[in-house]
Amino acid sequence: MTMVEFTEPAMRPPQEAGSILLRATQGCTYNQCNFCYVSRGYPFAAVTPEQMERELVSVKARYQDKAMVYLTGSNPFALPTGQLKTYLEVIRKHLPNLSGFSMQTRIGDLPAKSLTELQELKAQGLSHLYTGTENGNDYALEIMYKRHSAMDAVEQLHRLDEAGIEYVTFYILGMAGRGRGRESAAATAEMFNQVRPRRITTTGMTIFPDTPIHDLVTEGKYEEASEKEKIEEMMTFLELLTIDTFFDAVHYLNPVNYRFRTSSDKSEVIAEIRGFLAKYSESELETMVARHMMRSL
Prior knowledge:
With 297 residues, the chain is α/β, with parallel strands linked by helices. It has helices at 49-59, 81-94, 115-123, 138-143, 150-163, 181-192, 212-218, 227-240, 262-279, 282-289; strands at 20-23, 25-26, 45-46, 68-72, 100-105, 126-134, 166-173, 199-204, 246-249, 258-261.
């Protein structure tokens, strides 16, 4: 698909603050996740190579020649491999010393790429992907209508491992709702312990207006977890996580913020979280986090 002009604001993960941001897609090929507020109202569309080239020419002077490139959009990796390769040809024409490029993908996008295609994209500069794993609890995935299971996520991430493509995984604390934090923590730790994420990024479940999950709350079919439960879920998850990776909980939607290497700092962080939970009551934590004041991007 092609388009004349993007209307969706371009967004990026916090880790891509120093990357060249190039618009690739707007909207999402799926756009049915019950919690998601990002791409609603924006029909899926992709830029032409000419549009990408014009944007790159207009911004490249502000960056070093060896910069990273982040292709914006909710899931540009859903595009055909040939189209992604064409984008890369445009980028390398102007940035021959490019360090690499990255983008977001749904777990459901990955089966469409063969192992050969994945390896080809890796060879041509795909450094890492941001993967919408969200949670390892199948109940949470089902109620949020993710249309993949924890087993599906493990299978597809193993394929990325085999292709040599690094990836960042996402974990939404409190996604399963009230009373299910510990089982979600255990299931998500079990999922990630089987794979090799470059980084695990967390956010806290937030009910934004104009989303299907907001409607489920109104209908009494979903109850949001408390901030205490979300923090307890983070602590339990860290206790059960056995792999060496980078844990990144600095997104503004997190109830508490940490960023550390699990192999060196995990025990200290767990102890700090435990002390934090002992110090404040549930009502105090609700006031401190003030999730009702948080706004969608």
